[in-house]
Amino acid sequence: MSDIRIATAEDQILLDKEAKYCSYGDTVHYIEPPRIFSRCEGSYVWDTEDQAYLDLQMWYSAVNFGYANPRLNNALKQQIDTLPQIASQYLHKGKIELSEMIAVDAKKKFGLDGRVHFNVGGSQSIEDSLKVVRNASNGKSLMFAFEGGYHGRTLGASSITSSFRYRRRYGHFGERANFIPFPYHFRGPKGMTKEEYGSHCVQQFARLFETEYNGVWDPKTNQCEYAAFYVEPIQGTGGYVIPPMNFYRELKHVLDQHGILMVSDEIQMGFYRTGKLWSIEHFDVQPDVIVFGKALTNGLNPLGGIWAREELINPKIFPPGSTHSTFASNPLGTAVGLEMFKMTNEVDYGAMVMNKGKYFLEGLQDLQKRFPIIGDVDGLGLALRCEICGPDGFTPDKATLDYMVEEGMKGDMVVDGRKLGLILDVGGYYKNVITLAPSLEISYPEIDLGLKLLEQLLVRATKR
């Protein structure tokens, strides 16, 4: 095991400048000293010392199709040479065709007509969705959301994100959320199957509508004070918690009974992360709004957006000028998004991701058998979780996971004579969950490599 790594002289000059000139408000230093990276390709990034790191989080799922994907990079380069920029109030082919692809796909899968509205990223698209929802509900500003849910850090998005620390200093500007327990079976009450616990959580939510005294429902007028329920079908920052398959179907039944919209936040889990274009597809429900971002452009360009049912977003109810961003529907982003859809239509990404995910999960399950500190592993496609606990296999152990993350970033592990680092992401209610989001293009040998590197970190953690 190596000693604490010291920054090179060149890196230290840059870090000193960062400390003086850069806002810390948009930065988190997970390790000290922070790494400075110089290049990337496939599933790897390299630091300024040309040390390679296998990345198993891929920029929080923004780079689903691998770093420097040649096909998507070329789409961007070609667009630069034709129509690199145009004001968002003007039309271009890419915006129209990408909207068509998303809307036609939704019609096929959900049987619903709808329209697509673009913005520059996930949080901004959440803000646009809040406008759509409030407009459709005559200005209602109260929303349901989940404990453990994350929807962004702009003012509106942070108000429906369960972590108080993201809004503690800024107050509320309209939206407020009632946070509902998510069916986190590993930490739920004992004695229930996963499906039984899912039904139990829905039943507890349904109790809010039994009488007017529960505070959300007026049975005399059949009016709910809440406009929508914002869901991440698979919780992201909350620790890649995967609910039982019956959960959303039963929840949607309650929502439809009381006129509450379902907004599916697919910013982290969209674009085949779970083996489907949208993760909500696994649960046999029809969302009213879908919010997307991140992997639409493989991290090459800031572009996100929403798809909403025709009744919510047609020009009569949501007229021109309802929202605006200078860089929304920019041609560079839409060109990459179109190429991404063409690429995923040529190969059965669903089957490929599910097969790789099954293989990776089996490897994690093998590690769980050998290391008692792994309390839970689970996965859907290539959204995988590994919960690090104390010796009892249940008590959350954030300190041990923090240690593993730091050790992985030392870049001193050796597999088959090759020195490597490992990039992991930390999530979960107790910040003790490794949230694994490898490239969808990851090879089976690279999965094996990732498991070997994880094993080395686990050995270090148990021997320290």
Q: What is the level-2 CATH architecture name of the largest domain?
A: 3-Layer(aba) Sandwich
Using the alpha-carbon principal axes, give the shape. globular
Largest sheet: number of strands, sense, barrel closure: 7 strands, mixed
Q: How many beta-strand elements?
A: 18
Side by side, the strands of the main sheet go 4-12-11-10-9-5-6
Q: Proportion of β residues?
A: 15-25%
Fraction of residues in helices? 25-40%
Describe the fold and architecture.
With 464 residues, the protein is α/β, with parallel strands linked by helices. The protein folds into two domains: 9-68 and 349-463, Aspartate Aminotransferase, domain 1 (Alpha-Beta Complex); 75-346, 3-Layer(aba) Sandwich (Aspartate Aminotransferase, domain 2). It is built from 13 helices and 18 strands. A seven-stranded mixed sheet has the order 4-12-11-10-9-5-6, sandwiched between helices. Strands 1-2-3-16-15 form a five-stranded mixed sheet. The chain has a four-stranded antiparallel sheet with strand order 13-14-18-17. A hairpin with a 2-residue loop joins strand 13 (374-380) and strand 14 (383-388). Helix 3 (70-80) runs antiparallel to helix 10, helix 7 (194-206) packs parallel to helix 8 and helix 12 (398-408) packs across helix 13 (444-463). It is globular.
